[in-house]
Amino acid sequence: MKKVEIRFFKTYNAFLGILLAFFGFAVSCSKPMEYGTPSARFIVNGKVESSETNNPIRNVQVILEGDTAFTDSTGHYRVVNAHGFPGSQTFPIRFHDTDGNLNGEFTNLDTTVVFKDPQFINGDGHWYSGETTKEFDIKLSPKK
Question: How far apart are CA 122 and CA 139, in angstroms?
Answer without folding.
Answer: 32
